[in-house]
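Q: Could you fold this chain for me?
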Amino acid sequence: MRIDVLTLFPQVFEPFLAHGQIRIAREKGLLDVHLHDFRGFAADRHRSVDDKPYGGGPGMVIMCGPVYACDEDVVARGRAAGLERPRRLLLSPQGRKLDQAYLEELATEPWLVLLCGHYEGFDDRIREGLGYEEVSVGDYVLSGGEMPALTVVDGVTRLIPGVLGAPDGAGSDSFAQGSAGGDRLLEGPQYTRPREFRGLTVPEVLLSGDHGAVAAWRRAQARQRTAERRPDLLETTHFTDDDRSSDRSSSAPAGRRSSTPSAGAATCSSAGGSSRSLS
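A: Sure. Below is the predicted structure, expressed as C-alpha cells.
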C-alpha cells in the first residue's frame, strides 16, 4: 500500500513512522509512505497557503492553488510508480466518522492520499474539484489534521496482511468483524502470568485447555463487556442458542480475588514541491 500525506508539518509524522507496526510494515515492503509539504507549492515569494475568508469571519482559509499543485504532483508520482487512481481523504470534523469498518474498507485500497488541514479550514473547491472524501475521527475539533491522519495510517497499517505477527491478530480486536463470532463487539478481558497477582486470579476456564470452552467464554465476556460499556453495538449482534447457554454459564465476573493471600510479593516486568519518501 502507498500512502501520500499532504501537510504543512511533515516533521510531525517522522518519529511516529519510525516505530512499531508501521516501521515493520515499511521494512517488509508492505507500506510506502510519502510526506509532502504543500507550502512548497505556493506561488508567491512569501509561500502563502492561506487567506482571509470571503464574507468575513474569523481565521484563515487554506487556498486552492498550493493544494491543487501538490495533489497533481503526488498523482503524477504515483502513476509513474504504476498506480492508477488514489482514494483521497480530507481529515475534517465534518466527515464520515472513522470506525473499524471504515478502516477495513480503506485497507483494501492500494493507494491513499491524506490531506491535513490547519487554520479555519479549506476552500471548499478543494473538496469539490479534487474529489476528496471527508473523514472525521470524532465529534471534536483539533488544531490540525495531522493527528487524525496518523490515526488513519496506524489503523490501516495493522490491517495489511503480513504486518502483525499473528495472521488473525487484527480479527480478534474490539470492533473487528472477525471478533466474537463475527459481530463487532468489544474484546473481552485478557490475562497472562502470574496465575495469581495480589489476590486476583485468572479465570479457571482459561487454564482448562478446553479450546471450545475458552472460545465460548471469550464470546460471552465480549458480549457482557459490550453490554456494559457500548450497548449500542448490540443492536446489530446476532445471538444463537449456544450464546444464550454460554451466557448463563459465564455470568461470573471475569477475574476474582483469591480466598487465600498470595505467598509472597509478586512482581511484573515488561519485555522487551517539497516531498520526502519514508518507505
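A (continued): The helical segments are 13-17, 20-27, 64-80, 100-106, 124-130, 146-157, 211-229, 241-249.
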